[in-house]
Fold each of these.
Amino acid sequence: MSVDVDQSTPATPAVTQELTLRDIDRLPLGFWSQLSAQDARNALENFPHRSVWMPDTLEYAILGPWRHRPEVANVLALSAARHPAQLLCAVARQCGRFGAHVVTAIEIDEVRHPAFYERAGFGLFEEVITYELDCRDTAVGGTDGIIFRRADESSSADIEQLLALDHASFPWLWWNSAEEFSAYANDPGVELLIGQVDNEAVSYMGITSYLGWGHIDRIAVSPSFQGLGLGGASLAFAINRLAKSGAKRIGLSTQKNNERSQRLYERFGFRRGSHHDYRIYGKILSLPEGVSNVVRVG
């Protein structure tokens, strides 16, 4: 069991220790908490030794793997009125001891001042921005030259193709794992599709159909085939597919610094919708072998 002492309040030092299953019943997991007691138990069972708490104040931080990747630990819940920065520092130390390269904290429902993250040694990794398209009167072009087929999540060959396309197209932080692809493909309304040119896998996309609307979760084109219009063809296919499924509007998100993708989306009629923007803060504990940066620079 690891122990940390808060140096910011020496008169009443706060002790931080690993959170275990036997501690869950003491936590204030009520109506306002981000996780239920069962959610917390599941997190500790599936991702042990990374979560921490303060028994004296009942503050806690509960973690899970990002995209089913244990090397990226993600803060699922941070409940700390008095010592939030200390908890994040303790989380980073704890995760480093158990093999994580990176710890992330995603701001969606709760926004903190950047100085808070700086005190804990976390920096801004990504700003994710959202776009929306009213597709009721939208007509997009065809997808000549590329054929899409549904990926089989039970096929090791399809999973290998998806992983190769994914890892070649996105920075390390955003890589999907085989487990992530399998879990994602089994979500309700999801279609995971592989784009082929002359029987070669050159792109993939993930889309989700909801009642009356759709979401384009991810589009990737092999770097070897970029500049040939395949990104636009893939986007057109996704729009048409979701519209035929009954979508009246379509949403998607991208990194704020990915101007190339933004130009493509705007060319197809997507417009900014800031209601679901979010930030990803993180701390690099160690760089993975062969990786110079966990996010795309520039």
Note: The chain has two domains: 3-121, 131-278.
Amino acid sequence: MKKRLVLVGSLAIAGLMLFGNGMWMYAKAQLAQVLLERAWARTLHGEQGVKPWRWADTWPIARLQFPRQRRSYIVLAGASGRNLAFGPGHVDGTAAPEQIGNCVISAHRDTQFAVLREVNIGDEIVLQTRGGTTIRYRVRDRRVVRDRDTSLLEASSHRVLTLITCYPFDAIRPGGHLRYVVVATAV
């Protein structure tokens, strides 16, 4: 009987700790979004490289909007795992959001880019640049590719927006060898 009480008590404590950790992560993510919005507002007013918090090694470079889904995300400079914990990241070496070319943005499938499962061919995606320019894109393709498919990063002579996340969306383990890709062209 005593062993059973200890076991139940231990499981209850472990459950509370996991719940608390999950709530802490959620609260931290919400605070990060507020700080990102503030940094974005400063960026739109002409400041360069505005860090959302003092120790950040990234800054906002665009706002990505999905009008039909009523979602909007601040895009960060660089697509490192550390950056993707807070928002979509621009993949280095691809066209910057304000440039003509293939602008590639990546995010986690279970946070910001969970929205991609709701995006259809023909949907509009809006990208706002640091200078305040709005570029409208129309979704032309959705597909699943292997993680080693680097053709997604190829340059283009036209404005192309390529959004990449892990696949499948409901995978139990993160990562995997498949990527879900949405490709949109400027209209």
Note: The chain has two helices and eight strands.
Amino acid sequence: MEKQDGIEMKTSFIVPKEHIRQLINLALDEDIAGGDVTSDILVPTEHQSKAILLAKAPGVLAGIDVACLVLLRVDPDIQIEVLKPDGAKLKKGDIIARIAGRTRSILKAERVMLNFLQKLSGVATQTSKYVALIKDSSATILDTRKTTPGFRLLEKYAVKMGGGENHRLNLSEGILMKDNHLAILRTRGMTLKEAVKLARQKAHEGLWVEIETTNLKEVKEAVDAGADIIMFDNMSPEMMKQAVKLLPAGIKSEASGGVTTRTLRIIAETGVNYISVGALTHSSKALDISLELVAH
């Protein structure tokens, strides 16, 4: 792994350390700004412990570097041995990391560390399930901007750890004309082709233009307008299959809306290039991971 200006990661996706530090500081302020009165009362100041991070359910790991940063933010003297890297497939009972240091520090960091680790591993695990369902198709699973406020970079990183790919990180990374944009165009008397031309004139070089469509007529209009990507929004699989046939070489397709584990395979078989799934980030269940003190 190449160490860059961010946490060490197995992909080119970089989450700046300063961004992570800000999130960690906010989380710690929420949890221990007034101290941990229980541990401070019951545990002697210099009491030492060893602990493990334990997978209590199978899944895909994401966020171990963030968890380590939480521990070190609470106490720079804590010793951590990471046994499982991000992207690792976990079995129930796997030890993810070993920790040693002041007991008070470990207990103070516990909840915040696990919140990051469980949440991000949940996203990676959910993503891996979607990816596995269509692994023998030509479609690619994408995330969306339906992310937890403040956590977008980390959640999109977790999607990568689960084998998915990222759509736009933010509104500056692509031109996507959706229903409200198209409604404004109509009130201005502007055609779709004129809008695409304007977008390409005004946007910086390299930005792709995507147009949302809901029926075959709109697909034809988007093709004629010269879109780079055409989104099939909440179309039936039968309509998507017809829509794909309308696209000339060079124009990509994206299926969006109503994507679940039950519908995913059917959608992939229509021949679309991308399938965007908001549930990867907005509805993932946290992966069950615990911190347990162990005997010396």
Note: The chain has a mean pLDDT of 93.
Amino acid sequence: MKRVLVVCRANQCRSPFAAAALAARLERLGLAVTIDSAGTQAVTGAPATEATRLAAARLGLDLSEHRSRPADEELVRGADFILTMERDQLREVVILDPSAFPRSFTLKELVRRGGDLAPEASAEAPGRRLAFFHAGRRPVDLLGASSDDDVEDPTGNRFADHETMAREVSELMDRVVELVWGR
């Protein structure tokens, strides 16, 4: 697995934070994986929000150089593994490239499905592990929104905040690294 794409809506909060958190973990493990982020409704060139940069800095991550970009067919097609923050973003990814469904998951969905990982899958390569996580999934299962699968967007949401999002995504990324890379 060489390229991971992390997707949210505007690519200014959740996906840049999640991409930086994942990149830091994989770098510490000495794994050479390119981590990209994008947004389904992103404008090109916007920085991460100030609240996101501050939350990231508190966890040792630097988002000062981040600039948003829209998710497009080329990015999706080039990714070996795609993580989205919400179900609707996953659906948008699959619209861009229908063949991406087996390798695309919401962050929370992957962690939830990973709890059911068959013991024999733990010895498999990352790409083969994704096949285990995908087994039995149906697109219809990802219709609508779900707190089981969606990471709340703290931008403009009075019921969510950047610090909580950062902690939640950070903990979920620990589990993703364990599930996908076995470390």
Note: The longest strand covers residues 3-8.
